Each structure stands twice: as C-alpha cells, then as structure tokens.
TrEMBL record:
Belongs to the opioid growth factor receptor family. Residues 228-403 are annotated as: Disordered. The lineage of its organism: Eukaryota, Metazoa, Chordata, Craniata, Vertebrata. It holds the Pfam family OGFr_N. InterPro entries: OGF_rcpt (IPR006757), OGFr (IPR039574). One of its GO terms (cellular component) is membrane. This is OGRL1 protein. Residues 271-281, 369-380 have a biased composition (Polar residues). GO terms for molecular function: opioid growth factor receptor activity. Residues 282-296, 308-319, 327-349 have a biased composition (Basic and acidic residues). PANTHER family: OPIOID GROWTH FACTOR RECEPTOR OGFR ZETA-TYPE OPIOID RECEPTOR, OPIOID GROWTH FACTOR RECEPTOR-LIKE PROTEIN 1. Residues 35-238 form the Opioid growth factor receptor (OGFr) conserved domain. It comes from the Eukaryota.
Amino acid sequence: DGTDLTAKPKRSFYAARDLYKYRHQYPNFKDLRYQNDLCNLRFYKNKIPFKPDGVYIEEVLNKWKGDYEKLEHNHTYIQWLFPLREQGLNFYAKELTTYEIEEFKKTKEAIRRFLLAYKMMLEFFGIKLIDKTGNVARATNWQERFQHLNESQHNYLRITRILKSLGELGYESFKSPLVKFILQEALVEDTIPNIKQSALEYFVYTIRDRRERRKLLRFAQQHYTPSEHFIWGPPRKQKSEGSKTNKKPASPVSIHSSYISKHKKSKEPKNTSVSGSSAGKTTEERKVELTKNREENDQDEQGMNCDALKENNSEKNSDTDTGQPSKSEEIPDTSDRKEDASHSKKDDENLNNDCGNHLGTTEKDLCDTENSSHNTSVDLQDNLDKDTLSGGTATKTKDELKS
C-alpha cells in the first residue's frame, strides 16, 4: 500500500483523447443511431419520460431531490438530465445534435429545468450554486456528502458528464468555478483527496478556454504534493534546456577556435606595444625596418622552398613508386592536418571531461603546442600593423599567404 501511495501518477491516453475530441472534433459519432426527433428537448419540456424508468422531468426535480439513495444507485437518469453528443451507458438515451442544441437554448422552459437539475446534483455532492455566474460554495451538509463523494468514485464520471453538458447547452462559464472549487477542496483543504486525479485528468480538460485551463493547472501545481509528481501541463523549462544542451554539445572545432582566439588575445598587448613604439619613430626608420623585415622573410621563404625542393628531388623515385604527392606545397599541408587532428583529439577528450573541468590545463597545453605555428603569423601581423601606421600598402604573394 505504501508503494502505491508514493508511486508517480501516469497520464491516461484515453482521457486525453476523449477530451481532445470533446473540445475540437465533436461529435464523436459518424452516423446517428436514431433520427433527429428532439427527444432530449421534449424530455425537458416534460412531454416524454426518460427511458427505461418512465419518469418525467418534473417528478425527478420534485420527488428525487434530496433522495440521495435513489440518486446514488440509479444509473439511467444522468444521461437524460445531462445529454451529450456521444453515447453513454444508457442506450435508451439519444445523442444531442447541433440542431437540437440550438432549439434547446431558445426554449426558456428547458433552460430553467436544466439549471434546476444542475443545482440538484450539486446538492447531492455537497455543493451549492450561489449566483448566476456559476460560483459555488459548500452546502450545509457538505461534511457528510464530501465523505460520500470521496468514497464513491463512480460519481466522478457523472461530474465529467455534467461539465461536458454545461458546455454543450450554453453554460461554458460555469465550468471553471466548479473545477476550481473541487481542486481547492482536494488539494488545499484535503476534504476530498481521492478526487484530485480525476479533477486533473478529466475535469480541467473539459474547459475549452486554454487560458482558463492553464490558470487551473498553475493553481493545482502550486498546491500539489509531492510537487515532483505533478505531470499535467508542459514540462519545466530547466529540464528542457538541460536536455537541449545534452543533445547538442559544442563542437570540437568551435572549442578549438575559442582557445585560439584566447591565445591571440593574449598576444594583442604585445602587438599594440610594438606598434606604439614604432609610431614614435620617424618615417624613414620605419621604412628601413620594413624593407629589412621583408628581406628576412623572403630569405626564410627561399630557404624553406630550397630545402623542400631538395627533399622532393631526393625522394622523387620513392614518390613515383608509392603514389605520394610530389608537390612541395603539400608537405606543410600534411603537417597541418596532423596538427589539426591532434588538436581535435584533445578537444574530444575535453568534451568527455564535461567541457571545462580542466580548462586551464588544456588551454596551457594548446598555447605550448601552438607557439611555434603562430610565431610567423604574429610577425606578419606586426608587419601589417607597422605598414598601416606608415600609410603604405603591402602586397603579399601567394606563397606568403600560405605560410
């Protein structure tokens, strides 16, 4: 019993589908079983009795009122008192039609008796109607009737039918006050705790206005215990955001680029200091330094190209046999690929460590491995800064851009 009480409730697929059809796709039948003879309207006009008991509406409202034993144990009258556009347990009762609903709303005699039937059933549950807007409160005999309502759960089906019928016959505004009252008694006052599952599964979702449903669900969520077992309504935003971050982690390439951007930012003060010191020099000194830097870069590139050509000529035969590329430009590309592969491997390891548990160590390793590869780019950036300050424009060859 203890495990049943603490078990988390589950949503009913049948209830969700049934009430969705009630709000959006009514009627629930394709073909009428009977011809449209307006039997529900004629019953409320006291012209025909309900079947199979053969009792007229006036007798029900006058003699059955207050007879709780008869109202409890008779199961055939409720389908006639609160008709719907769907079949109930009493197969003698007929479904409402759209034409019959319009005629019912125009008949004052039928509307007056319908409200009297609603008051009679509310009193049977221990509730009373206090105004014309649908507000309800406890009746004088509420303690006895609430105890009975908490134990006889077949009456929860009757309440669902009553709420549906109120919406069909022009009293949609009466639903929300009744459901709010039931939720208050079940969740806050704890007078009818057994009804809370049906109230959240059925009663709330008979209301067609989406905003009213959300108000009731928010009220129920505030008072529901335990709070983690509240399963109605949309999921919490924190859980949804956490699932999104788990499903879509940051890519290793983006992490790698962020590390490199941080590394470059650490070098920026050096660039600014160099550019600031060069700004204090004269124009002639800056021109001499630029020409010297260009000559040194050209000599370095020529030396690198010569070494690459010598290696290419010495391994020409092996290249032709193994099918390896013979161009000197592809040699640094393969090293770049290996370097990128090593960095992506490190980034994958960082992702497995929750993306940042050892962020300082990883960033330090990346800076150490990237120092040699970024020295040339930093020198070129310094030259570009110097050239911009002097007002000149430098044209780079394709080999310089690749290096």
